[in-house]
């Protein structure tokens, strides 16, 4: 077993060597511009792009012509939200999203607010899911777009996307979802889920960084977008710029592998994830799960270890790569806004660790991480005045703390 | 974030972890910070009645590695000092010793606050101490 161990697969994933193999010829041998229509070099590149388009579309139940290539999910989110807002400005100026969305969605919405759009930020319930009745009530005749992520990047919960899509369809409102964490991990179907726009990125599903896509529905309804970059009119005029052919080939291959291997991979990752949770919970008291267990990605786990601060936990497992919602690990010194949105106290947010298990993790690694974490939590609790007080029966919420 | 060797050393081998009897008259207890801020330090001193020297110091800290290191270092420094000498410990001394980066300066401030709180508690206990035929030996104004 090699260290450090990578368990941060929500942040990014290691590229699958099979993906790299597929990409390599397109850097040197087949280097053509996919938009060159009058020679062999261009045709070869275009064929590769077309194949990738189909591979991506197949994974999400779309048709190839509905895939628009971008530089990644942040661009896709921006293009979807700003592109719809601009295109449908005459119809209305209201957008609905959720408090736990990724910053690529939230900050895009905030930008639109400055430009006169109205945005509703739906709260989430304690399990991290939105309330469908609140969504229904939030939709007005001015609403043009609902944007709710498929799965959350911090707590791994799956939103009731099919129900959200159904509500949007009934009300005649477009539905965009950031599919980054879910695509390739759980079955996503744009027709079953009534999705009109969906952001995709390659590096979360064992593909390369710097390439992504936006699914844009072509019929029932036909979605139109105002391009956010001007140029050669590539990608049906929605996204200009010479296509990143090797990256696109990589995204396509990554999708094809995920589609082929998903049933088995899901079982394996879920087994490892459950084993990790069971081990930690059987050896340690007061370990709390953040977010719904039932509606969750198979490889995702977010736990809080009460009375222990997240950054000090990470220090104790410095050969394991995970993330914490602790303020100390963020640039802003604020604890995770996602965990706070669940209604958790800041203390529980400070104590949280996110585990993302991936294709290349082994059972041996999971056992090692569990063992190590149990020891570190025990050691830090020996050091924790809060643990001592709790064991003495003191209600920490009733203590008046001395702060500046 | 990269930690200095000294922070890592205190984190891996924290000095003087534990608790003293907080009801004892010669023990001062300081508890500063709050769970929602991500830092709580409990620092205790035990003062020798005869010579006014801090003969023992213990801590427990909920917080990041730098907070643990700051309080661990503080207990090391407190031992053997008089109460007045202890009051002279500044957070900047801790910052320098541990090479704390700017975002971790608040950890050292908290440790200084914990020292002051422990000494304050000790002194208020001493002030209340009923001199049964004798004066408290080392009450300081």
CATH level 1 name of chain B: Alpha Beta
**CATH H-level homologous superfamily name of the largest domain in chain A:** Type I PLP-dependent aspartate aminotransferase-like (Major domain)
Q: Identify the strand order in the major beta sheet of chain A.
A: 2-8-7-6-5-3-4
CATH architecture of chain B: Alpha-Beta Complex
Which whole number gives the mean pLDDT of chain A?
95
Shape category of chain A: globular
CATH topology of the largest domain in chain A: Aspartate Aminotransferase, domain 2
Largest sheet of chain B: 3 strands, antiparallel
What is the CATH architecture assignment of the largest domain in chain A? 3-Layer(aba) Sandwich
N to C succession of SSEs of chain B: HEEEHHHH
Unreliable stretches of chain A: none
How many domain regions of chain B? 1
Strand line-up across the major sheet of chain B: 1-2-3
Interface with most residues? A-B, 28 and 30 residues
Radius of gyration of chain B in whole Å, from Cα? 15 Å
